[in-house]
Amino acid sequence: MATEVLMPKLGLTMTEGTVVNWLKNEGDNVEKGEELVEILTEKITNVVEAPASGVLQKILVGPGETAKVSEPIGIIAAPGEKVEAPAAPAESAAPAKEVAAEAAKPAKKVKASPAAKKLAEEHGIALEDIEGTGPGGRITREDVLKAVESKAAAPAPAAPAAEAAKVEDKRVPLAGMRKVIADRMAESFRTAPHVTVDMEVDMSQAAAFRKALNEVAPEKVSFTDIIVKIVARALEDFPVVNASLQGEEIVYNGQVNVGVAVALEDGLIVPVVKNANKLGIAAISQQVKELAAKAREGKLSPDEYKGGTFTISNLGMFGVDSFTPIINPPESAILGVNRIQKKPVVVNDEIVVRPMMNLSLSFDHRLIDGAVAAQFLQRVKALLENPALVLL
User: Fold this and answer.
1) Which domains are seen in the chain, by residue range?
2) Catalytic residue at 169?
3) From 129, 266, 321, 369, active-site residue
4) Is residue 28 annotated as part of the catalytic site, yes or no?
């Protein structure tokens, strides 16, 4: 008996999935539990196993196509068993009947004198378009002459301008990762009143701190790694920034799990460094590198990109000076990191050149007040300008 391969529900919030690739072709033998098809959902690709043994008789949803959860995407049958694809719904015959009925309607009878009919035929004028002035609405020769004169007086239609060569629009369905991002960002901006505050930081000490670490660290430490550690430390001092609003409750998260946004070819994903406040910078650096590599390869497990309590998004490498990051729900805040740029600043009443960086903090004003957000950002700034404090 044939077995349908259904679009699986791979997450609590999943409503549909996109077929990335079938690992078997139609007509191939499959064994129950064998890897059969790759499904994209919740920003990662999942491999789905065959629900039964037999032959993959039909592929109903091809690569790049989307199906709702529990909808059939393929059919496995016994060898030699014939399976028909679901039939398309028959088209209604009503339109054909209507056309036939319309065609069967008798033509409108037009009253016209023989002279009027002959003149109208000579000038290519439809009698149906002429209003008769004769007895009983009969069309006369004079009525046709007036129509001929009106036609001659009408301006000739302008010659159509040559149309520029058109480039066809490319349309692709909003599906998979792009749809997940669209839904989550729209939900975040719709439900959480976003406020963004900016603060400039002197990165001189952070740069020196990083240089000292890289002289002894087994692998190079980035500014992002240092910022993850510093933010995790600051979140310990401001638990409300690490909290989330869920329904009518404020949830003060027991863990400090810092997500780091990773740009992908067709979107982005936020792998999470769990318990970042309890890790050293070297351990954070190693995790960030490993998680980013797995994200770009599409190999993150759900546990590696869920459970975040705060997110960092770094656009500094693109020369960005300031932006408004959108909160990653259910979190209550997100920190945007911008480029480091040498600028003249006043220090002790003297103008000096320092590497300056702007931080952009977006927060949910339902949960976090402006003063608290500013104090949190001040704490992050103080630690960046004296990073040795995180070692205490």
Assistant:
1) 3-77 (2.40.50.100), 190-391 (3.30.559.10)
2) no
3) 369
4) no
